[in-house]
Amino acid sequence: MPVTVVGSIAFDAVKTASGEREKMLGGAAVHFALAASFFDEVRVVGPVGDDFGEAELTVLRTRGVDVSDVEHVAGGRTFFWKGEYSWDFNERETLDTQLNVFEHFDPKLSDASRSSEVLFLANIVPDLQRQVRQQCPDARFVALDSMNLWIDIARDSLVETIGMVDCLILNDGELRQLTGQAKLVGAAREVLSWGGPSVVVAKLGEYGAALITAEDYFQMPAFPLSTVVDPTGAGDTFAGGFVGYIAAHPGEERSPEMLRRAMAYGTVIASYNVEEFGTERVARLTGPEIADRVAELERMMHFSDSPIQLRG
Amino acid sequence: MPVTVVGSIAFDAVKTASGEREKMLGGAAVHFALAASFFDEVRVVGPVGDDFGEAELTVLRTRGVDVSDVEHVAGGRTFFWKGEYSWDFNERETLDTQLNVFEHFDPKLSDASRSSEVLFLANIVPDLQRQVRQQCPDARFVALDSMNLWIDIARDSLVETIGMVDCLILNDGELRQLTGQAKLVGAAREVLSWGGPSVVVAKLGEYGAALITAEDYFQMPAFPLSTVVDPTGAGDTFAGGFVGYIAAHPGEERSPEMLRRAMAYGTVIASYNVEEFGTERVARLTGPEIADRVAELERMMHFSDSPIQLRG
Known about the structure:
homodimer, alpha/beta
C-alpha cells in the first residue's frame, strides 16, 4: 500500500565526534520517506524554501519517492536545525532552530496523498496532525510521532490526536511523561486503553525499541555498531522501516510476528542511517544490505533455554 | 561448582514511589548470594557489626548459603546505605553512607572459600579484589563488578585487577568511562583486548543487559514489569543468576548458547528482586517461578524473519 508522510523537510548542520556538516538534507519526512521507500511508494508532504533545489529532490526521486506534494514556498527558506552531539552521542544540544517556511505550514494533500492507505504523521504540532488525519479518511494504518514540547504545551490536543491513530511511536521518556506512568509497560498500557492506538512503539535510543500491544511485549536491541557517525534522523528512519514493512503487507493481519518483523526492518535501516551523516548512507542503501543485517539480527537474538535443576 | 562471593553486607534504608524501609538487609554480596543459591552452594565473605543478628543470617541460611566467612567485627556497626529513587526510578540520590566495619575490611577466606572454583568479586576497592583473587588460585571462573568511583580514583589498580579475571560486569556508562570508547561494542572489545576477561557483561539498567565476547553480541531486555517497588540490588542479583548458572555447568564449554542462558537466569531473578523491597521477594522465590519467567522470556524474544521483496 502506498504511504503518505507529512512532516518536516530540512537542512541540518551537525557536529559529532566523527566530524561535521554545515548544511545537509534532513527532516523527519525525508528520513522516513527514504526508509519506507524500500517497501512501497511514498508520498512526501511538506514545505521547502527557495534554497531547496533539484539536488535535494533528486535524493528522494532516486529512491522512487513521489515529491509532487513537496510544497515550494516562494521567497521562503527551508527549515533549518543545527545541533551538536556529546562524545558518546548520549546528549545533544540544539544550537539553532529556524522554522522558516515551516512556521506557517498548512498541509495541502493532493488526491494521491489523501488516498494512501498508510499514513505517517511525523512530529509537528498536534492540531495539524489531526487536520491531516481528517483529510485521509481511507487510511487503514496511521502512525504518529510527537515530542516532549507538545506534551508540555499542547497535551490535550495531542491526546485527542493520538485517539485517532492506530500506532503511537514515541521515546520511552516521552511515553512516561505523557501518561505519568513510571514504567514503560504501564505507560504503553495506558495509551492502549485510550481507544485509539492498538500498537505502541517506544524508541529506546541506543538500546533499541520496544513494541507493546494488548497481547505482546517485544524489545529489539539496536543493531550493535562499534562506531556511529551521526544519529540524526535515526528515529524517523526506524519509523520509515517499521511503517513501510506494514504497508508492504496489505492483506495480512497485524500479528505479533508481523509487527516484530517490522521492528527488525526499522532497526536495520536505522543502523545504516547512523553510520554516515544525514541521509548519505540510506540514499545508496540496497535491499540485499538490509536483508543481510536482518538475518544477522535474527541470529543475534536467538535464545532457547534448556532445562536445569534449580535449588529451591 | 561452589561459588565464593566477596563484598558488602549491609543495612539499607530506601525510599521509592512505592513506599519506604528504614532498615533492611542488603549489600552486594547478599543480593548476589541469594540469587546464586538457586544453582549451587554459595560462600559469603564480608564483615558485619554487632547490629547484624540471627534474623539476617537466617535469610541467607534458609537459601542454603554458607555464612561461615561472614566476619563479625565486635564493637562495630554494619555498613549502612540510605537512598531515594525518583518517581520513574531513573535517578537515585544517596542520602547517607556509613562504611562502618567495611572501612577496614581485610578479606579473610577460609579454606572452603578459597577452594571455590567460581569467584565473584563484588564492587569493593580494586586492591582488595586483587588480593582476594590471589587467594583463590584454583578459581576457574572469576567475575568482577566495579563502579565509577574506582575508575575515577584508582583506575590503574582496577585495570590491573580486571586483567586477572574472566568476566567483567559493569554498567554500560562505566564501560565507556573506563575505556574512553563512545559505543558499548567498542568499549567491550577494548576490554576483551586486555588479555584478561573473555566475557564482558554490560548492565543497561531498565533496558536489560548485553553480553559481548570475541565471537558474540547478545542483548537481553529486562523482564517487562508494569510496576517496580525497589531496584536496589538488581545488578548484583543479576550477577548472582548469571554467575550461578555458569557455576552449575562445570564441565561445559562457555559457549554463546550457555552464556545467553546464563543472561536469562540473571535477568529473571533480578526481575523478581525489584518487585519488593530489598531481599524480600528473592528470599521466598522458588525454582518453578524462575523457570516460568525464563520460558516467558524465551517466547518474548522470539524473532524469525520471512523473505520480503525490497525495492532497490
